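cron nightly-structures :: item 1 of 1
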Amino acid sequence: MLAPRVSIGADGPYADQYGYFWSRKVQQIAGKAIPVSFASGNGGNKIYVIPACRLVVAITSSAYGHGYGQRRSEAVSRSVLAAEAQAGECRTNDLKPILNTQFQAE
């Protein structure tokens, strides 16, 4: 596991923490806090890991060099999370350990 090195929530809308090429954000979906870890590439290329929903989402994008690619990826991930949460696929009752877990070096 990795330890967060930089808190970036005040500087950017897409992540709260960043460390070792991975970012973290707690998404508020349907009134539920769902922690999301993700790797981000240029133009909106992303790999999202959402343990609470037992879900991995990979997004490829051709918006290289364009800021709208990041916004589109964010919108796609939030749509997938909303559908999963609505279907009851996210374990929101046991999120406290996940929310309190930080990337820690082993």
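cron nightly-structures :: done
Strands lie at 6-7, 17-19, 22-29, 32-40, 46-50, 55-59.
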